[in-house]
Amino acid sequence: MTLSTLRTRTAETLLPFLVGGILWEGGCRFFDVSPQILPPPSLIAAQAVELWAKGALRQHILASLFRLLLGYVLAVTAGIILGALIALKSDIRRMSSLTLSLLISIPTITWVPVLLITMGLGDRTVITAVFLGGLFEMIYSTALGVENVNRRIVDAARIMGAKRTDLFFRVMLPASLSFVIPALRLCIGYCWRALIGAEILSAMIRWGLGKMIFEARFWNDVTVMFIGLLSIGLLAVLFDRVFLRRLERITIEKWGIAARIDA
Amino acid sequence: MKPRTVFLALLPLAGFLLTWQVLADQRWINTALFPSPGQIAASMAALMTEYEDGRSVLAMHVFTTGKRLAAAAMEGIVIGMTGGCLLAVSRWFYRLANPFILLILPIPGIAMAPLFIVWLGFGDQVIITIGAVTTFFPVAYNTYAGIRSVNPQIVHAASIMGAGPLRILVQVYLPWAAVYILNGIKLGLARCWRTVVAVEFIAAADWGLGYMIWDAAEHLNASVVYGGIFLLALLFVILEKGLINGIARLTVNRWGFSLS
Q: What is the pTM of this model?
């Protein structure tokens, strides 16, 4: 990417926010909207800087990221292993299909009361909820991806003497990435949802973006709620750009495997 | 389906429930925390036959959640499809709206709940609005992608043969994009379902399955919690398999496509 295209793209991304921000700020001032209902962006920014300087915002973000990423990594790892097992062993597939579609339909937040009862009110509950939130989608999509790998490629690799582990890691897994990468994206979304839900419901947790947003409710502090929501949005976009987009570019885009479109 | 397939599909569930029942009957697990499947079924049956104002309590919870889900999904789908069409038709609109969509898309519905509670108060309105917001995004994006995927030559052909813009939208673009749109709706419905139940946990005043589960958990009534979870899973499987696959069979499957 050349410098000038980079510059245009940055401008294209920032311009809408600039326009939106000015309209928002202007609207708030012109109509004299109470900051108790809709704070202007200038107030949100000032408050965010203050919260960051106090160290509170950073602590909330770090606590949430730790739980999110730990749960996510566990869910992805377990999901890929179990998904591959399901796809490769037809008896396991038959045994798991009904159970999996039931499990996938359960809103993750409903696990939280069960986890609160069984695992207590702390971090373990939240991380387990994040794990469960991402797990079933990952299993399902990995299984679908591995099932859809062209059998001829697998046979060709086998004839050329590939061992079982090679066959999986160097043939099947790369070939199923056009399913797995969209699943990674869906999965982080489910994990975020589980994280925020669990943080809200877990009484013993002090730090975390979900906690921050929920506690702002007691003071009707809409500004802090906006800061929390924006932090979640920005962190999610950042994760997508830094990790998932890059992964896509060096794998399925480079190899020319069509990606499915999901949101 | 072959009997072997049915048997294998039911095996893990039956095994799990049976083991649980035996463990609970033998008091090897704490039945206050893990009541046996029999107790769970009994307490659900009790809720079903418990009447308030002449209506079954369990049925009211299910009905309320269903009503909210239907309202939220309808709003989200209609606005989402409109938004997706706009995004696809106007480059200018796309450039302006896309950064905002990218930013808001990943925010979980339950995180928006406190904000919307301040704006709208407790109850139905908050739950339906947040449900609609979360349904909107996948529907809009997939509608957009579907419309962009239409071969322009087909559009030209239709317009040469005298079709007006509205007719081209309804008879060319939308059927052609139907696979994408239905996938978007499927995804949106899944998000909507999760969001509605989740927001019911914190914003429902008296009815709804999410409220029922959270209320039971706060009163340490474990059998209603487990029963509620099982009921939620069952309801959504029926909804997804019945509704979405039904629509797909009537439309895209007949045209030779299938949903992912």
A: 0.88
CATH of the domain at A193: 1.10.3720.10
Query: Which residue in B4, B106, B183 is closest to A236 by CB distance?
Result: B106
Residue B11 touches chain A, beta carbons under 8 Å: yes
Residue B116 contacts A where some CB pair is shorter than 8 Å: no
Residues 6+ apart with CB under 8 A from B80: B135, B136, B137, B138, B139, B140, B143, B184, B188
DSSP output for A48-80: HHHHHHHTHHHHHHHHHHHHHHHHHHHHHHHHH
Residue B49 corresponds to which amino acid?
T
Q: Chain B window 142-201: which residues touch A at a Cβ cutoff of 8 Å?
A: 142, 145, 180, 183-184, 187, 193-194, 197-198, 201
- Is the CB of residue B193 less than 8 Å from the CB of residue B69? yes
Task: Tell me, rounded to whole angstroms, the distance of Cα A125 from its chain centroid.
Answer: 18
Domains and CATH numbers, chain B: 34-250 (1.10.3720.10)
The answer to whether A110 contacts B229, with C-beta atoms less than 8 Å apart, is yes
- In chain A, which residues have their Cβ closer than 8 Å to the Cβ of B198? 107, 109, 193, 197
Nearest CA distance, A114 vs chain B (angstrom) = 7
Closest CB to A262 among B109, B187, B233: B187
Provide the residue range defining the domain that includes A103.
53-255
Average pLDDT over residues A250-255: 79
Helix (H, G, I), strand (E, B) or coil at A7: helix
The answer to whether A15 and A201 have CB atoms below 8 angstroms apart is: no
Q: Is B56 helix (H, G, I), strand (E, B) or coil?
A: strand
Count of all residues that appear for chain A in the document:
263
CB contact under 8 A, B216 and A113: yes
Q: How far apart are CA A47 and CA A45, in angstroms?
A: 5
Q: For an interface test with B, which of A8, A193, A220 has the most B Cβ atoms less than 10 Å from its Cβ?
A: A193
Q: What is the mean pLDDT of residues B121-135?
A: 91
Asked if the structure places residue A131 within a domain, the reply is yes
* Nearest CB to B5 within list A94, A197, A236: A94
Give the CA distances from residue A165 to residues A139, A157, A168, A178, A199, in Å, rounded to whole numbers and listed in that order.
19, 12, 5, 20, 39
**In this structure, what token pair is assigned to residue B22?**
């035996």
Kindly state whether residue A158 falls inside one of the protein's structural domains.
Answer: yes
How far is residue A134 from each of residues A69, A114, A142, B33, B169, measured CA to CA in Å?
11, 17, 12, 25, 37
Question: Do the domain assignments include residue A7?
Answer: no
Q: What is the mean pLDDT of chain A?
A: 87
Tens digit of each residue's pLDDT (9 = 90 or more) over A172-214: 888 888 888 888 988 999 999 999 999 988 877 889 999 999 9
DSSP state for residue B126 in the 8-state scheme: H
Token pair, residue A66, equals 């730790």
Task: Give the mean model confidence (pLDDT) for residues A107-122.
Answer: 86
Q: Do the domain assignments include residue A48? A: no
Size of interface A-B (CB pairs under 8 A): 170
User: In what helix (H) or strand (E) does residue A209 lie, and over which residues does it extend?
Assistant: helix A209-216
Number of domains within chain A: 1
